[in-house]
Specification:
By secondary structure, this protein is mainly beta. Helices cover 8% and strands 48% of the residues.
């Protein structure tokens, strides 16, 4: 009641002019303006007080509206490396991540042998998330009390990954424990949602259009686990026409910094973008084309976009990039890659033309070679594999270190009733397999690779080497 009285006592109606001069009986009380009853002034004062109180109750202070634990991280710092005892410093920090170098978080914390605990409650949508931790020295991460990252050891760790599925939408508690041994001290963590409630983790978003130029609204949108399609003369879906259609695939993935090899195969046109920067452009009508390229990529989450169109006839769309984490499941590559190899001394290799020269070295210890011809072919080497099953195979040619000086060696790949040509500069390579592309083989025994001695260079000016050809199932 004292608050009410205090507020009411401080508030008084203010009127100016002659209205204040019409009260000769009591000079200590404010006069009432002419024509306004006293009961009206009292009632008006009461209702103004009520309105003010309602306004204040409707807008509480910021500290009452949202706890700090939901707006920032609670950081507790300890003067020992194992979170023992009471923290020497407890503060709220707006962002997560520190690089203290050779220093410490605060004067009361030593530069070595300290620890910290970071806690925050955050809103997450239902779905699958990828957490990435970089730390020097050690850390552990929990979500709702469940340990998802355990990197509690001395030494720097780069991009420790954990994939977690959150089955409910709402508030979830993140807790991070950290310790510093000696030397540099830092901790960084980020996360990204890989997929929503019904998404396929690591999938491409495919938008299919009923025209060749990605115009208008897609006639169909779906998730594609990979861009690896050979629709032949058919259609991707009953809602998509068999000719004159286009597709846009998009996907965000985490990639470490480095140079990445990407592979494309398409009929008709294709374009590839990374973070909206075009890295491959072949947007015109064409037969099946296979290309391999190398692109530098900065570390972080990169957005890949692949655009494709088909005019008429066959439709093929394939794209892959080395180092693609897929669904972010850790896998150990098979060191014994299964491949079908046809060497120059195997029954599957045939020679047509004058006898070639014998070369020492290369795959298996020997190879054959010949001088080039300018226009008309005189000699042809042919590799015919015995493939175990139909499917996509990447084809490689082995280039020995010597007798391989032609800069225009054209290999022709006969596969699935089609012929693809791939020209390479043999002079660039030394004792290594070089990719000629990925192709579909029906494995019926009538598919092969040939290399002719006509290169377009001056006759007898260069040498072509004929060594092993390898077929790797993809």
């Amino acid at each position: 009641m004292c608050c009410w009285r205090s507020l009411a006592a401080r508030w008084r109606p203010q009127f100016g002019g002659a209205a204040w001069q019409n009260n000769p009986g009591n000079s200590n009380q404010p006069t009432i303006p002419f024509g306004i009853p006293r009961r009206f002034i009292v009632k008006k004062s009461f209702w103004v007080v009520i309105i003010l109180l309602l306004v204040l109750s409707a807008f509480p202070l910021a500290s009452q509206a949202a706890p700090l634990t939901k707006l920032s991280w609670r950081a507790e710092y300890f003067d020992n490396p194992n979170l023992s005892g009471q923290p020497q410093l407890s503060i709220f920090e707006p962002r997560f991540g520190h690089d203290w170098g050779y220093g410490s978080p605060a004067p009361e914390i030593p530069v070595d042998h300290f620890s910290a605990r970071f806690t925050r409650t955050m809103h997450f949508e239902k779905g699958t998330y990828l957490f990435l931790l970089t730390v020097d020295d050690g850390a552990r991460v929990w979500i709702d009390g469940k340990l998802i990252i355990d990197a509690w050891s001395i030494g720097r760790k780069e991009q420790v990954k954990a994939k977690i599925r959150l089955d409910t939408t709402g508030d979830h508690e993140i807790q991070v424990a950290y310790f510093e041994h000696t030397g540099l001290a830092s901790i960084q963590m980020e996360w990204v949602q890989l997929g929503g409630e019904n998404d396929i983790v690591g999938a491409w978003k495919g938008e299919y259009f009923g025209n060749r130029n990605l115009a208008g609204t897609p006639v169909m949108t779906r998730q594609d686990s990979a861009i690896n399609f050979d629709w032949n003369s058919g259609s991707p879906h009953p809602r998509v026409p068999r000719d004159n259609f286009s597709v846009r695939w998009t996907r965000s993935i985490y990639l470490a910094a480095g140079h990445y090899t990407f592979r494309v195969q398409h009929d008709d046109g294709m374009r590839v973008y990374i973070d909206d920067k075009i890295i491959y452009d072949s947007w015109f009508d064409q037969e099946v084309s296979y290309e391999v390229g190398i692109v530098p990529i900065k570390e972080g989450f990169r957005t890949l976009r692949v655009e494709f169109y088909d005019h008429v006839g066959n439709a093929v769309a394939r794209f892959s990039i080395d180092g693609d984490p897929g669904d972010y499941t850790d896998t150990v590559p098979d060191p014994n890659e299964q491949a079908t190899i046809v060497d120059n001394s195997d029954p599957g290799f045939m020679w047509y033309g004058p006898s070639p020269y014998a070369g020492r070295g290369g795959f298996g210890g020997d190879f054959v070679w010949t001088y080039n011809r300018s226009t008309t072919a005189v000699s042809v080497g042919k590799w015919m594999p015995s493939l175990p099953a139909a499917g996509n195979y990447e084809v490689f040619a082995y280039i020995p270190a010597n007798r391989s000086t032609s800069r225009s060696a054209t290999y022709r790949i006969q596969h699935f009733g089609r012929v693809a040509a791939r020209t390479i500069d043999q002079n660039r390579y030394q004792d290594e397999f070089v990719s000629l592309g990925m192709y579909y083989f029906d494995a019926r025994g009538n598919e092969f690779v040939t290399l002719q001695d006509n290169t377009g260079e001056g006759s007898g000016s260069t040498q072509l080497a004929f060594d092993a050809v390898k077929f790797v199932k993809r």
